[in-house]
Amino acid sequence: MSDLEALQKNVRRLQSRAGNAKMALHDLAEDLPVNWTEIKAVAEKTFDAFAELHAAKTELAAWERSQ
């Protein structure tokens, strides 16, 4: 597997994880005030997932520009 393919695979994996985290946050918000104590943990998990995705996309873009 080339570097490009590995970076693309990682971005796809992180996009899936970020999408799942987004849906978990959305579902939690829809059910409020039930499980309100979970807001911070779910929001942090979602934030972390999107931060990782952003970093991976930035790395992929930098690699593509260097080629």
Description of the structure:
With 67 residues, the protein is mainly α. The chain has a single domain, classed as Helix Hairpins (Orthogonal Bundle), CATH 1.10.287.660. The chain contains 2 helices and no strands. The chain has helices spanning 3-30, 39-66. Helix 1 (3-30) runs antiparallel to helix 2 (39-66). The radius of gyration is 15 Å and the shape is elongated. The mean pLDDT is 97.
Biggest beta sheet summary: none
CATH superfamily: Helix hairpin bin
| Average pLDDT metric | 97
Give the terminus-to-terminus CA distance: 17 Å
How are the elements arranged and paired?
Layout: H1 3-30, H2 39-66
Give a short overview.
This protein has two helices and no strands. It has 67 residues and is mostly helical.
